[in-house]
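Subject: two folds for Thursday's group meeting

Dear M.,

Sorry for the delay on this. The cluster queue was jammed most of the week, so I only got both jobs back this morning. I'm pasting them in the order they finished. Each block is the input sequence followed by the predicted structure tokens. Could you check whether the formatting survives your parser before we put anything on slides? The first protein is the one we discussed after the seminar.
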Amino acid sequence: MPATPQSDTKRKHRLTKLGFHFLFVGAFAMFGGAWRTSNLLLILAALIFGALLMQWRWSRKSAECVSIRRRFPREAFAGKPFRVRYRFTNVSRLIAIWTLRVEDEIESVSGNAKSVAISGVGRLNPEQTLVSHCDCLFTKRGRYRFGPIALMTTFPFSLFSSRQYSNNTNELHVFPALLKLRNRWQTGLASRSGGESTTARQSGSVEGDFFGLREWQTGDSRKWIHWRTTARLGEPAVRQFEQQRRFDTCILVDAFCADPDSDEAVELAISLSATFLTHLSSSPSNRMVLACAGTETSGVIGGGSIAGKRRMLELLSELDHAPQPDLQKAIEDTTQIVGRGQDLLVISPRSMEDACTENEALSSCFTPWMRTGSFRWINVSGRELDRWVVSSRQESPNPSQQAAQKQPESEQNPPEVEKALEETEAASPVGDPRAASESHAPPQDLTEQRDS
């Protein structure tokens, strides 16, 4: 954010509650001293009004001598704290400024959420620049507007509050919340082995990344020979390459939501899509295409670049769910851009059968990918999500169910001990707790005998 121009600022100087008290006491002392011709009351009134005048001049000058810049983080995700930094610069050469406070208004572009980011500095020397920050946490994705900024100071006596408002605003995209994926989740996605894409397979083979050196084996290419190592060892040594898994995938997000009040499933689908894109975009060899079907159909191409990843996440952050999203149109628009050479991954809050029942022509759109085995449908509302995401809620077994479970073989008693226990239980009455403690029988055995 650039320095605040003088033409874009508004200034307000108001008395605080303490200032109103001082003004009342000063007026009372002045009128009382004039009525009773008391010099002490007039001196007291002069001191009070002098303090008010000094406070007004100092706080006003302090607010005018400060310029402020705002700096956003590179990425901001819902449910994850991020830091907004504010840079204060004192343009005065003589006056030091104390107790500066900045209030930055935050409002959702949709207009359903408002908040304030607060930060400040304690002392700012002449021609000094300091940076403070404010830790923010957004629970929902979307586009948020920051500004205007209110710079305030009440130094030195807190009698006047001088505020300087800047009309400059900036927008920040808060990306969907990220989920924790399971280990080896990449194996569930179709990929291109050997680091080769469709275009690379047509033009020629690609070895991959250099991994190390090894001995010569029959069938190795001569161009892989490492001549320096061969001359030093006296035996042929070849370079070994590590083959990478290349993903060439089109992710289609189905923003289906029948009830706007309960959108947990569609938000989960959007978060899973953002998680996949974040992880897959970390490799520059991957090619990713994002298609969204909500109130509007849209798509964006993003590879392993930071700019492409940001475009896709921004599209997900502004995706609006709809009761009848047009998946067929989203697929057709995407295939016109990149064709059908990529794998298709559909992430939806409903099953494929429900979507095809609503639109009968949808199954024919998936046929080309189904024939080649490059199609996958993930229903986040079912149990299939557990194959990809680590659940935050660990299901603990019920104590009654845990007591009814069978003991492991390592903890079971030998046959001789079990036979002796059965004879002891048969000789002692079931209702006698003393006999039960002497027999050392498991609690589940006593429960079964009482039930019988």
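Second protein, same layout:
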Amino acid sequence: MSTEIESDKGCTPYPKSPFSGIGKSFRSKIDSVKEYEILEENEEIKDDYFYGMPFGLGYNEYLNAQKLKSSLITKYRDMQLSEAIKGNEASGDFGCVFTINEELKLDLKKFSREKAKEKMLSELRLLYGIGDTKKKYLNSRGYQTIEDLIYHPAFSNDAKSLVDLINSMDSKRMMERISHWLSKSDELVYCCSGFHEKEDFLFFDIETLGLFNRPIILIGAAKFNGDDLSINQYFLKDLNQEPEALNQFLSQIGPKTVLVSYNGKSFDVPYIRERLSYYGMPHINEMTHFDMLHFSRRAWRSRYPNCRLVTLEKYLFGVERHDDVPSALVPEFYETYLRTGNIGPVIPIIEHNRQDLITLTNIFSKLYEEWSQ
């Protein structure tokens, strides 16, 4: 079997990139590491675990993933990526990257500006000196909204300032205020999304070769255009395509862009910034960012076994994935692709990322249904 990675057909030639040696160096390290093997007849297995199995992954889950990988290698033998997945080579300042585009009919439910303002104005606890007890007392005295407190002798100035902030629809400052007095996962923080048009939201998710200081192998980004969700996935057919994948992702960000992720504040954004720094590329500026993991935990933690994305899509939307690669095994599947040139192991990685983006948008809408009452 050939071990050559599919050539970049249709890719405009560029001068040799200063980063071209990085992918080659990293790939040589992968080639020197022996791939995990399935042990015959549970040999040397203790408590359903053996050395080399990723932490947090059950033995049966690991075994099923290995069977999946083997079947994919057989199914896609001698097939090119462009034959299996409809995509093209996107060219930019740093070379090429394989890009997959898809348009889906999908609705996004969100707060209107008026409803978001109404909910915020009704929360007196956003003012200094007002807690639960004080709020109940003020309500009993006829002060139902922050606007009512403009005429209160003790809270007038702060109320005026807060009303001005809410009317300015500065979501970043408003989110900071709500987080300070209530919590970062409070539903009012989510309500700040009502200050933006749905076309402003950039839903994104990354797949990596590790937890830190390892290449990003796939970046998924989705944006609404009317009733259509446009999904763009930037997949690295070779590791030296990482700078262009980052470049293509950055091109999705404009002055009005609002980020939406699932654990992106803790993982995806810091990881992307680290990779941009590694290549000396421009950083992502601080911008409004809605992390659905925090809101999901607040809304559903007590109802479901956990708040993993795949768990929520099962219980909330009735979606159960088949032939899915566990996140912990994404590096191994991709490294098998690099080592053998067989595209089979990366097919479920691309589909996994695509489904994550769709579920992310559905969770955004589901939270609106949960908190719009």
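Two things I noticed about the second structure. Residues 20-105+197-371 form a domain with the Nucleotidyltransferase; domain 5 fold (CATH 3.30.420.10). The first strand starts at residue 88 and ends at 92.

Cheers,
T.
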